[in-house]
Amino acid sequence: MYGYKKGVAVVTGAANGIGRAIALRLADEGCAVSLWDVDGAGLEAVAAQCRSAGVAVDTRVVDVGALPAVREAAAATTAVLGEAPRILVNAAGIGQVASILDGSPEEFDETMRVNVRGTYNCCHVLLPAMTAQRGGNVVNIASWFGKSGRPMSLAYCASKFALIGMTQSMALDLARDGIRVNAVCPGTITDTRMREAADRQAVAKGLPPATERVHMIPLARLGTPGDVANVVAFLISEQASYMTGQSINVTGGLWMN
Ligand SMILES: NC(=O)c1ccc[n+]([C@@H]2O[C@H](COP(=O)([O-])OP(=O)(O)OC[C@H]3O[C@@H](n4cnc5c(N)ncnc54)[C@H](O)[C@@H]3O)[C@@H](O)[C@H]2O)c1
Predict the structure, then answer these.
(1) For the segment 6-41, what is each residue's pLDDT rounded down to a tens digit?
(2) Ligand 1 near 18 CB (within 6 A)
(3) Is 227 in the pocket of ligand 1 (CB under 6 A)?
(4) Using 50, 70 and 90 to split pLDDT, how confident is the model at 65?
(5) In Å, what is the CA distance from 65 to each residue of 35, 113, 122, 166, 183?
(6) Among all residues, which ones are annotated catalytic?
(7) CATH of range 8-186+225-249; options 2.40.160.20, 3.40.50.720, 3.30.70.920, 1.10.260.30
(8) CA 176 / ligand 1 centre spacing (Å)
């Protein structure tokens, strides 16, 4: 635990998987949390767990790809929790197991809308208040698929490469405003809805599920959402106060660049 100063954190994609683990960790660190997701039922379950950490909790059913909805969610968060968010973790994301040949243009557009435009929207709306306060922290959940083209992941790779570029550009633009912007690049993380869907799609296309790829991972296990949340918590903490613009792999050694 890092014992953050108190503050409001927005976590997108907080209803499930990695976003859920990050939300729980930030609540344990003492942040008031605003949980944003399209999955309202999932949000309420996570909110109940966050409240048991003794922090204020707000939930917003919001499609991060829709700018007006993000504006509304931000205003409501500030009104309910009493101050503008100083921490933003962009974990909402979607993906498909598909190549240029078997993926559709519509899937491509939707992946870019949620993963790239969704992250843009949340940053665009929440960063002005952070710059006004001269302090803030953004962590974007990218992927090792944002560092190396991978098979059967065309749209997803494109979106995650974009997130790393956005992370670096924002880090440069906002450093003098006291805002750090970093990315985390998870490897093969289990216990998430995206992992279940990817495994189903992979098997349907004759490809191995994640459990059959463990032998490729140097640390010899799949990652957990908690593994990712640990690194996010570190990046937000004062222990990482000299880090910005970084894209940190959390892959069990699978990817080292
Ligand atoms: N699971 C992995 O192996 C893995 C690896 C690398 C990166 N990631 C990234 O981690 C992040 C979280 O993924 P996960 O594996 O926990 O999957 P998940 O499906 O369990 O969680 C994603 C969450 O995002 C929400 N979401 C989807 N579209 C949304 C939208 N338009 N607006 C708001 N919320 C939306 C979903 O409802 C869900 O709760 C994603 O960005 C994903 O790309 C996952």
Answers:
(1) 799 999 999 999 999 999 999 999 999 999 999 999
(2) yes
(3) no
(4) very high
(5) 16, 5, 9, 16, 19
(6) 156
(7) 3.40.50.720
(8) 31
